TrEMBL record:
<dbReference type="GO" id="GO:0006220">
    <property type="term" value="P:pyrimidine nucleotide metabolic process"/>
</dbReference>
<dbReference type="Pfam" id="PF02224">
    <property type="entry name" value="Cytidylate_kin"/>
</dbReference>
<dbReference type="InterPro" id="IPR011994">
    <property type="entry name" value="Cytidylate_kinase_dom"/>
</dbReference>
<keyword id="KW-0808">Transferase</keyword>
<comment type="similarity">
    <text>Belongs to the cytidylate kinase family. Type 1 subfamily.</text>
</comment>
<dbReference type="GO" id="GO:0005524">
    <property type="term" value="F:ATP binding"/>
</dbReference>
<keyword id="KW-0547">Nucleotide-binding</keyword>
<keyword id="KW-0067">ATP-binding</keyword>
<keyword id="KW-0963">Cytoplasm</keyword>
<dbReference type="GO" id="GO:0036430">
    <property type="term" value="F:CMP kinase activity"/>
</dbReference>
<feature type="binding site">
    <location>
        <begin position="9"/>
        <end position="17"/>
    </location>
    <ligand>
        <name>ATP</name>
    </ligand>
</feature>
<dbReference type="GO" id="GO:0036431">
    <property type="term" value="F:dCMP kinase activity"/>
</dbReference>
<dbReference type="GO" id="GO:0005829">
    <property type="term" value="C:cytosol"/>
</dbReference>
<dbReference type="InterPro" id="IPR003136">
    <property type="entry name" value="Cytidylate_kin"/>
</dbReference>
<protein>
    <recommendedName>
        <fullName>Cytidylate kinase</fullName>
        <ecNumber>2.7.4.25</ecNumber>
    </recommendedName>
</protein>
<keyword id="KW-0418">Kinase</keyword>
<dbReference type="GO" id="GO:0015949">
    <property type="term" value="P:nucleobase-containing small molecule interconversion"/>
</dbReference>
Amino acid sequence: MSRSIAIDGPAGAGKSTIAKKVSAKLGYIYLDTGAMYRAVALKAIQSGIDTKNQQGLAGIMDKLDIAISHDNNLQKIFLEGADVSEAIRTAEVSAGASNVAAFPEVRLKMVELQRKIAAGADVVMDGRDIGSYVLPDADLKIFLTASVEERARRRFDELLQKGQQVTFEAVRQEMVQRDKNDSSRALAPLVKVPDAIEIDSTALEIDEVVEKIIYFYQNYANIKFEDIS
């Protein structure tokens, strides 16, 4: 029987970075669900479809070809056979991902793929609705958060390092809008489920958060490991 850790939380809380490190320590597969929604947004943009156009998005979902591969804990995502792992990391696609994720037609297709992957392997999965909707029976559920200012600062620094010309205020406003979109959508909104353990990463180093999650996994999920390096 496969094991799973669900890490949910708002944009910029550090979910992907933390999930990658936790999965590496455990020898599990890391699944970045946000990348899947980014791929949908990229397809919409490439097709000239507004990412807020539900009807337009519904028209491309049936034939949408998204695939994921894992190599040494590195996830790559493919759209129509092309590696778009870097192309989906722009500010435009980031904003579009939040838009497309609000529509049931998109979420249902992505959730189907996510559950299929989790059924066949031990996974650490991060997103907005993993513990509440995608994997409600996950062995451990974490709700990772941080202040809006700190999350915006992290994203701002990340975009600058990639050479993108943005302002901190623009990134902060996008973060606020994404929080609103994620928390208010009709299907599987971002929520902290009662059985999730909340970790505020505002003042914590990455490795401190990772250690906390490993501790909770060993002690709260009743899973014992002889050696976690």
